Amino acid sequence: MRVTFKIFIVTSAVLLLNYSALLAQNMLNLQDWQIGQGSAGMFVQNGQTSENTREWAEGPQGKGVIVWKAAPDGNVHDDGGWNSNQITINPVNMYRFVVWLKKTNSMSGASYFGCSNVSHLNGTFNENPYFWSGRLPELNKWYLLVGYIHGSGDASMVNYGGIYDGTTGAKLVEIADFKFAAGTTSTNHRSYLFYDPDLNDRQYFYAPRVDLVNGNEPTIMALLGLQSASSDQTYFAGKVSIKTPNPGAYDLAVNGRIRSAEIKVESANWPDYVFKKEYELPTLEEAEEHIREKGHLSGIPSAVEVESNGIELGEINARLLKKIEELTLYLIEMKKDVQQIKKRISTVEQK
């Protein structure tokens, strides 16, 4: 009985710490997300007060939580949801927006999930930006909606956002990403039910959040409350270091061993120029003199340099290939010399 109680205490503590970590990362203040109607703290109601209620209900993980309920009143316009107050951002960083949604009764109306003060990834300004709007895949089921706003200096045209199945964790729908323009100072979180004529329809919202994407934000699997061997694509706005507190000039620094099935290294100035006519191939005498003086091949770092600075895979492979190509040219010349010697020997023998 004592062991069971201890396990319960440890498990509860771990869950509490994880939940606290999730809350600590969130840039939206949910302190006023309490049972009641209308606006709540930084969340300003969309539609009438009667269309916006917070109540206890079963959340995405099957536990009792406070949800925001949109209940249309028949005006077929803004039927519930919120616009958050503006939150301060740094435009060079990437931010991730999240909300849980569930629709019941019918597919009437449309769900919306958006932000403000952003441009499309191609740089054109969007006056009314939504990561996604439309109908959820199924009724009576929770879905996690995730949208990204890229930093102003990010040239990527890749959309990372999506709609995730709350039960399986599968990414079901690709949705749009946006981008901050340089000088932008704020944005907001907004999610609605709109244009729903059915008075019996309900849309439920849960756990809205905004995270700075810097490697410390909760993973998608953590937000889903699922454990999986696979993880969602992850973006790191800053440097990443493993087993070292100082990554230095490197975007990824690892003080340890790395195992991989494949590594691709980008490299420029590949040494095909060695085979061009204008290339001046060093003589073997020059190579011999350099080895005698320096103790290593020309163009190849010394053992002392490698021990101090390491090697760059792309650059060292290019340098080694250059030496292989020079050796190939030496062999070709030697073959020609050998053929000439054979001809002379054959001529002497015939005489």
Q: Please identify the top-level CATH class of the largest domain.
A: Mainly Beta
Q: Write out the CATH superfamily name of the largest domain.
A: Galactose-binding domain-like
Q: Average pLDDT value?
A: 86
Low-confidence stretches: 1-21
Number of continuous helical runs = 5
Our Rg estimate from Cα atoms comes to: 32 Å
Roughly how many Å apart are the termini?
108 Å
Looking at the structure, the CATH topology of the largest domain is: Jelly Rolls
N-to-C order of helices and strands:
HEEEEEEEEEEEEEEEEEEHEEHHH
Helix content: 10-25%
Count every beta strand, where a strand is a DSSP E run of 2 or more residues: 20
- Write down the overall geometry: elongated
Largest sheet: 9 strands, mixed
CATH architecture of the largest domain: Sandwich
Structural class: alpha+beta
Fraction in beta strands: 25-35%
Task: Provide the domain count.
Answer: 2
